[in-house]
Amino acid sequence: MSNGILALLSLLPIISVAVFLVMLRWPASRAMPISYVVAVLLSLFVWQIPFVKVMAASVNGLIDAIELIYIIFGAILLLNTLQESGAIQSIRKGFSDITPDRRIQVIIIAWLFGSFIEGSAGFGTPAAVAVPLMVGLGFPAMAAVVSGMIIQSTPVSFGALGTPMLTGVFTGLADDEAVMAYASQLGMDHLELVSFIAAKVALLHAIAGTFIPLILVCVMTQFFGKNKSFIEGMKIWKFAIFAAFSMTIPYVLVARYLGPEFPSLFGGLIGLAIVVTAARKGFLMPNEDEIWVFPERSEWDSLWIGRFEMEEKQFEGPGMSLSKAWMPYIIVAGLLILTRLPQLPLLDMLRGSVATFSVSDIFGTTIGQSVQPFYSPAALFITVSIITYFLHGMDTRSYVNAWKTSARTMLSAGAALVFTVPMVQVFLNSDGGSAGYQQMPIELAEGVAALAGDAWPFFSTFIGGMGAFVAGSNTISNMMFSLFQFGVGERIGADPTWIAALQAVGGAAGNVICVHNVVAASAVVGLIGREGEVIRKTLMVFVYYALFTGAIGYGIVATAKGSMFNIGYILAGLIVLCAIAIITRYGAAKASTVTN
Question: Are the C-beta atoms of 117 and 333 separated by less than 8 Å?
């Protein structure tokens, strides 16, 4: 069978997601079983994978789904605990004291705090922390999920202390003679080569990430404002660009001088300190008559509201201090760092043999799974919830109510995940069949590469994004495609480290539309059945990110070949000029404001 036909067949599970989930707006609980069946049929009858291996991959996916549900429960429990203790009310007041403007709030929480949490833990944890926090502050559930997904781009390549680079790219390029020969030519070992690629990844992310906070607020005002106007987001363009640089400049410097572990963590933390301080002093803040908030709750579209909604609770007395209210989140952030630093003993304790539960050779296949329940972010959320019970002096009845409410919400999340994750595992474990084909994602990439030729840099980011879209992980995407991308770079006479960097950037951008992450983030706030709506709102963000960085990558590769004036730089320049023109045209335009 030709590469082109195999590529088209490999695309069918993804097409089924696009058609049923995004175009027809079916809930994931209905759309994902179809995608799963398509992947299973392709595996059995085209790739000719043994039935037991397909079932083993499905079981492996179910175990992953249970882990995700565990994380969702922990995130909801922590938020419910803070709601019952009165902490959310104090946090809400604290943000209102800085500004009641929801545009400023979403930049601080989603872009900066979310980037810090991504750098600390990764693997969807920002959605589990930032999204419910926004709902607790009064954001519509849909707005919170969309915002949480949009920022899952720039910080992702260096999430979980650099795991997508240090595990994903490192493993993907490991033990290949051509890679090691190229590293030797540069006078580097394998780890130094990955760090070299990581610095390029950070630069590409910083360029594209410049506009992410502005896109974030424009999407929010366009879809969730009373006037449905992106102009109301454009009006704070100066603050949005300032917030972007406050994160991306230290982010690039850390990647260049400290390595892949800390760019997102330090970038988010430093940016948070700079922007919150500036906002308190009124720097670039909107005037009082320009404050933007959501319409009254009675005017919200029913699609915006999740099954999990926080009720206003009345508390007597002066209320909780802001430092005490924020302390659980500070503890979460601290524990995330302490339990993930390899220099500390906690990492070995939580991931050691005693704390690891393994299932190997499922149904006699080579597929296996290891579960580390104490290392999971869920364990930290539950631990901090228990600490909060004592720290905030909660009564037992309120705390029990937090557990009951969280359990009910968690159960509603399972229907979509029990098909989404097994589909991913069947798709990824489609090699080794009697037909002799490579796994589906590689066959798809091979088909695209054969058509693209020298224009491959334009497509490399989209292939990385496709890997993350399906696998739910930038790390897995990098493991699958890094060596392939490196090889394509060598075949077209381009610097392969730039092509590998484009893979990592595209893989990060793919998280914006990843079904796996959208389902999990939606489940955290009870937004069940509207996953397709979320992806429809974030799809153009992914296209912007992948196209912009792909164009820059093409320009860099073409320049190295002696062509300074090339289509890549022209396209990237046009994107920048369009952004400047829109900012110039609408940034100072008079837009209607919505006030309390």
Answer: yes
